[in-house]
Amino acid sequence: MTIKDCIKKYSKQLREVTHIPNKEVEILILHILQKNVIWLHLNYNKEFLEENILEKLIKKRATNYPMEYITKKASFYGELFEVAENVLIPRPETELLVENAIEILKDKSNTNVLEIGTGSGIISIMLAKLVENIKIVAVDINDDALALAKRNAKKHQVEHKIEFIKSDLYENIKNNKFDMTISNPPYIADDYKLPLNVEFEPRNALFGGEIGDEILKKIIDDTYKSKIPYLLCEMGYDQRKPLISYFQNFEIEKYEFYKDYSGFDRGFSIKFKKGDK
């Protein structure tokens, strides 16, 4: 059977789990053969000899198992990152968080940044690549995430700029002389029903408590107590109003919210006033 015939045959099995079934079959074929898209376009009529492997991967994907976990890679900010089970899959919306951080840091020198919940390391790694003279401490409570983040940092040649530490939020952070805290924390309410594909991802990277914003609020508290000037976080689309109310507990110079690619509230930045209340 040719590659073209395989795409036609197996795309039918993915119609219930993706709006791009043909494309996903192509991705799996390229993953199996370790080839690129240009090669595929030139070889659609070539005999495909790995149908048994493809069939197994198609069956797995048809259960809503994430494509990123099958191929063990994901694109973020135009770069390719390694992905692993038990670690949150990078989302395109998080690129906006990185962009907002760069906007604040671009004119500063010798900056020190703390990332809470680094996951696969994408935020810290992109900041390390795009901001000169930056030092980053990236923490996570997940050993698998820390190991993956270290591999990604090495792959992108920024491991000398990032120190990875196992820590529950600020718990094991000794140096509080940071210019910014940045985080994509768990912010989903515990009783929220996840989409089927997201069910495969680690729950402790998704659920933020009974209401959902408990960890977010703890990060705000700890950042303020540590006298760190800037805080940037992702958040849930429905958390803007309660967060604005919570901000009243702190001396804040200014705060801003930003929307994601679908127009939903997705994150915020805070600049705290110097000193405590």
From TrEMBL:
Signal peptide per UniProt: none
Catalysis performed (reactions): L-glutaminyl-[peptide chain release factor] + S-adenosyl-L-methionine = N(5)-methyl-L-glutaminyl-[peptide chain release factor] + S-adenosyl-L-homocysteine + H(+)
Release factor glutamine methyltransferase N-terminal domain ranges (all copies): 7-71
Keyword presence, Plastid: no
Keywords, sorted A to Z: Methyltransferase, S-adenosyl-L-methionine, Transferase
EC number in record: 2.1.1.297
Methyltransferase small domain segment(s): 102-190
Top-rank lineage group of the source organism: Bacteria
Molecular function GO labels: peptide chain release factor N(5)-glutamine methyltransferase activity
BP terms from Gene Ontology: methylation
Keyword S-adenosyl-L-methionine in annotation: yes
Protein name stated in the entry: peptide chain release factor N(5)-glutamine methyltransferase
Organism: Malaciobacter halophilus
Lineage of producing organism: Bacteria, Pseudomonadati, Campylobacterota, Epsilonproteobacteria, Campylobacterales
